[in-house]
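We were asked to recover a plausible sequence for a given structure. The inputs and outputs are reproduced exactly as logged, with field labels preserved.

PROBLEM: sequence recovery
POSITIONS: 232
GIVEN STRUCTURE:
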């Protein structure tokens, strides 16, 4: 039998001894996952690009916010140390750096200036505006509540003052002062029983050993005052 003529055949390359692995193979991913990633690589790169752009935008926002906080703090410091034009500088701070902690402090300082100028209504409005913006457990809350209670008490708005003081009473460490102020208001209103109850709260809240605090003159005065009230 004649041997087949191989002269017309195209010579074939021998199979490679190894298959060159790609990057995906280096991660030992399942073949199905590799095929999917390669088939959808354009869409996946688009998603990756959008995610990267979002990260860069957020980083830019954080940088801008940090810049505003810094500039607001500098403006507040300059206004507080200004020998003149303090109100104008504080107003400008509010306009330029609103919604920053420095702006809140600027509003408090403007309220204090109104209070000093005898503009009670304006001071109350400013303090109330600050109170409405404060987050829960803000360190400014006791200060603002105390200011509002004092201003309302001074103009004999008893219910408003008591409302602020009751809220102040619920803040840790502020109960004694709130109880004392409420006792004073009740006594001014002629409500003896309520006043004595508040004074008693104050005395109980300030009951610590003499070795730790010495003689608390304010507490001693209230205790003596309670005895006089009860004797009447």
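RECOVERED SEQUENCE:
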């Amino acid at each position: 039998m004649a041997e087949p003529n191989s002269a017309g055949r195209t010579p074939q390359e021998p199979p490679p001894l190894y298959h060159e692995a790609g990057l995906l193979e280096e991660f030992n991913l399942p073949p199905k996952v590799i095929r999917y990633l390669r088939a959808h690589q354009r869409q996946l790169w688009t998603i990756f690009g959008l995610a990267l752009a979002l990260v860069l935008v957020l980083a830019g926002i954080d940088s801008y916010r940090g810049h505003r906080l810094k500039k607001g703090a500098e403006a507040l410091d300059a206004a507080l140390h200004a020998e003149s034009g303090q109100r104008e500088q504080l107003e400008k701070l509010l306009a330029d750096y609103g919604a920053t902690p420095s702006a809140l402090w600027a509003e408090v300082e403007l309220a204090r200036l109104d209070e000093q100028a005898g503009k009670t209504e304006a001071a109350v409005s400013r303090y109330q505006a600050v109170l409405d913006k404060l987050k829960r457990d803000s360190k400014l809350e006791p200060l603002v509540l105390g200011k509002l209670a004092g201003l309302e008490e001074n103009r004999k708005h008893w219910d408003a003052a008591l409302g602020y003081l009751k809220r102040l009473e619920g803040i840790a460490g502020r109960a004694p002062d709130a109880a004392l102020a409420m006792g004073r208001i009740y006594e001014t209103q002629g409500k003896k029983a309520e006043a004595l109850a508040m004074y008693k709260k104050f005395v109980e809240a300030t009951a610590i050993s003499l070795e730790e605090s010495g003689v608390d003159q304010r507490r001693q005065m209230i205790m003596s005052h309670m005895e006089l009230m009860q004797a009447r």
